[in-house]
Amino acid sequence: MTMQATEPQAARLLLLHTAAVHIARFEALAQCLAPGLPLAHRVQPELLDLAREQGLGSVELQAGIDQALADARASGAAVLLCTCSTLGGLVEARAAAAMAEFPGLRALRVDRAMCELALAHGPRLLVVAALQSTLAPTLSLLQAVAEARGQVLQARTLLVSEAWACFEAGDEAGYLATLRVALRNALAGAGNDAVDAVLLAQASMATLADEDWPRPVLASPAPGLAAALALLESGL
Fold it and tell me: Which domain of life is it from (predicted)?
């Protein structure tokens, strides 16, 4: 199993990634949100590969996530933040099921806070993804959050699968450019008034949220990290 890790011994917050590109983004965010707080990072792209090839019900995938949780607890982490939207729900579920085995460790998916913020704008949402495997977990989370808020979710999806080839090739500029064009076309075609907010379903899209859009465009890294920091501070 391939694993890349950078783990300060004192880190109580560990981030589980499926691409190394996320490390710099979350380190920069941490310097803004909690200056001086050490983070630990684990990069396990094979977990996303398993999800895409075998589905989230894969026994091998679940075993891999259980091992990641065990490693996180052994390292002294109190909170594990999964930055992969495809895997986040499964990571939360496996952590909850293993609370007795890993006492003191909580897991959180990076897109949960983003979904809550999006629904605060209204129930008519456009979910943008470059991977098919990301859509079902994101929509499932949105539905659960909407029901808890007493809202009737009206979600549409925009799958920009051609952008993923750029991401895998390390062409971030091409990846973002492809997504940008697709999103602008989608908003123009639907009419801005038909959408309350846009969710960028993958953390790798976060830069797009900083651009000028006719409707609110939300990304997961900043609110997700803020939620993880709050959980860490609460000691729950």
Answer: Bacteria
